[in-house]
Fold each of these.
Amino acid sequence: MEIRWLLRKLDLMNKIFLLLLFTTFNLVSQTYLTRTGSTEFKASVDAFEPIKASNNSTTVILKTNSGNLAAQLFITAFKFKVALMQEHFNENYMDTNEYPKAIFIGNLNNFNLSKISEVKQYSLSGKLMIRGIEKEISTIANVNLDDEKIIISATFSVSPQDFNIKIPYAVRKKIANKINISLKYELTEKK
Amino acid sequence: MSLPKKSKIILLFLLISLTVISGVYNYIMKPPKNIASMKINFTGTSNEFIKLVEESSIEWLGKIVILEGLVTSKDAKGIMLNNRIYCQFIDPTEIKVFQQKIKIKGRFIGYDDLMSELKLDQCDFQN
């Protein structure tokens, strides 16, 4: 009698243990992602034709327990207003056929999912890889949770030399030395 | 009619140079091609295309394809074909039309390592 009672109790404890393990596992492995994040850049110089493009097909994955963030975009998906500019960008500056993507791997430092019901600032740092060259990036990102989506926005700047992008002398004055990149990603929970 | 000959020549010259300048300007400032006017490089099933991209993804960068496949999931901006091809739509309202087996036209933009998926943009239905 007593043994049976003990066994039943053990069984119940097992179930509770498994349930707890399962829920914590779920919490730990929470992933938010988007395939259609927006990344823009501007390299305009005042008084010249604006040089800017946007990429609305950026893939972004955020692990909410650690704040680890990975983003990837295809250079060819940058849209310009002018066809010639887009062509030169892909063929002359970015060598898109050789280096088709840009990758960022980094971290939203001290990220805490439970604290972003209002817009909160986190430091975002990591490595940006373009044309096979890595560069450390560090900026501040605004993060908030809105309608079950995590919204991340940030800006930072790079220079063409960072990634060994050579700009011909003839157009050097028309392309800014500092290229401003702004991003806005709306991530939904992976189910 | 009563203009002196000199003025007529100047007027003609101005007219010609204006046409040339606007022609050159329009050529330089031409917007990127719409995919509707671009050559189709592949027509076939999703699985056939996946195989081709696995062999060489670079070769297909920026190419226009028409794919037939099964819709396995959807989000606000696109659909997933055969669990492997994400198709981002030009007009996301088209996504509401639910059909399991569909034919779409789009531009291949690359192989996404993060998600292990092929990615297409500028998609629309071809039914």
Amino acid sequence: MILTLVFNTILVLSIIGVLAAVILAVAAKKFKVEEDPRIDDVEGSLPGANCGGCGFAGCRAFAEACVKEMELSNLFCPVGGNDCMGSVADILGLEAVKKAPQTAVVRCNGTCEHRPKTNNYDGSVSCAIASSLYAGDTGCAYGCLGCGDCVTACEFDAIHMNAETGLPEVDDEKCVACGACVTACPKTLIELRKKMPKDRKVYVSCRNMDKGAAAKKACSTACIGCTKCFKECPFEAITMEKNLAFIDADKCKLCRKCVSVCPTGAIVEENFPPRKVKKEEAPAL
Amino acid sequence: MVLKTFKIGGIHPAENKLSANASIQALAIPKTVYIPMAQHIGAPATPLIKKGDMVKVGQMIGKASGFVSANIHSSVSGKVKKIDQILDSSGYKKDVVVIDVEGDEWEETIDRSAELVKEITMSQDEIKTRIAESGIVGLGGATFPTHIKLSPPPGNSAEVLIINAVECEPYLTADHQIMLEKGEEIMIGVSILMKGIGVDKAIIGIENNKKDAIAYFKKLAKGYQGIEITPLKVQYPQGGEKQLIAATIGKEVPSGALPIAIGAVVNNVATAYAVYEAVQKNKPLFERIVTVTGKSVAKPCNLLVRGGTPVNDLIEAAGGLPEDTGKVISGGPMMGKAIVNLEVPSAKGTSGILIMQDTESAREKMDACIRCAKCVKVCPMGIEPYLLMSLSEKSMWEKSENCNVMDCIECGSCSFTCPSNRPLLDFIRLGKGTVGQIIRNRKS
């Protein structure tokens, strides 16, 4: 009795299994979606971070776009960089556009020391929410809010809050310039800049567009729009707009003359060897 | 008797009407006023004066720029010191006209007598024009320009005027006091609004915790045709526009639509008083009643404040800033917003200044959502706050839009109720802002 039951069960299930297999086999043949095999190849050569830094919804979407467009001038994977785009170009038989590698810089130097607090914020820890509520907990309406939306946005562990300064810091080794932090910052403080040799950087670490006196009052290291750097720069790399200086990384030759003339220390140099101490001028006779 | 109310959600926070029955006192004119050019929803007004100009009380100093905008009038007489940018109650720096006060010289056209003018001589169009010229905006807090409400978009017609005399925010008593002291004027103001809109029916909704005002208005209403007084259950947010409509006429405003879609126009009771002054006395809107209150405040009071007076002056009049102050809030405790410093100027939308003790204002530690659904139960719009918060946290804006985030009226009932102290409204507001931007981008 039990044996028959077991036998029948196995028989029925086997028949269902065979039938299902036949149906699936026929369906797989009949409804097969033709897909360009190169999409898989291209996707394989991408980093697979799915960060969205290319502007597409993940690596697969980017690979599809590459194959569809058959033109790489507007497509670039910032994470993989030139090497990755080179191999994509090889697969598709196209010409890759070379781009200078970039890195993120945070253009605010308003540490607690430089930028005294004028009020306490005890709302939700989110820059987006804080910025929808008010200008910020210091006198500067342009500076870092310090809630770390950029840190949350980074998929590569490349940006961290410095507990001492209350400002985010970028790890140049890890930063792939995907731009997620740039989008996340409600104060548009973060900028992608061309990577310079030895990760050296010279940039205006301020976004305060108030007039000099107001900017200085809010933060001792604010750009006051004095135009000294603008006049000093031998390469015309500096532009002035709305009381704020900006250094064009493409034109900057890292001479650091602007750093020396800046009266508030708003222009920051990073990863340079220590400056030689100037010889003391001979006392006037 | 079962009182009318809205059908879904709602809470009942402690009322704390400390300044109830404190008669309205005119606040001394400050030495300097800072009149913001953005005292309403929409485009800021364009300044009409320049440094060094002499102005009089009631003189137009800012002109409406655009369709949704309102005129701004000087609240004092004196000399324009400068046009500057200072932090206002929005938390951002905005244009203000700084005026050094000299004397108190009013425009001659303003009727300053206390005599009650009952007869409405103006035509419908004249009323609309006068209201627009006088810079009248909704004084309940949203500050939407009133003249736009009086001109329904084509295809819509108004059937009933609803006057919002609910004042459901705890602590605030400005509307209550103006009803007790200026009842006749308000009734005339309501009649003017009825004529302006072209309706013959008005309902004044009053929350049942203002029994003296209800009794007084019921007596007054006998002398006016078509004005009905409806006592409402004490429930927050009874004064929300859509909730008030549901409570008084039992109709629901469709999602995304304006009240005019179902033939209703809602105006605040203080707005009705401002309309009376503008139409019958030719006095533009430059001063309003502000409640200054708080548990530690020495003298909770209702003050008649000239626009642009720094908040500090208001607090001084109420006995000074208590030592245990944690936050100073512009508006009520539910929908108001903490201000950044005491130099922030009062504006047309400043219905109250609430001084909270540091112990009661501190945020509690946030815990995980325990899926108790209390926020869903209290939401007066029938949306799901816990879901919208997590969608905002994950930046899922499309789904957020599909879950009707734009229907949120920001009443704060969800955050108030949450046993895990989750800042639901903070995140929903963020979602509303982002989704609103996405919708605007899609349209353009």
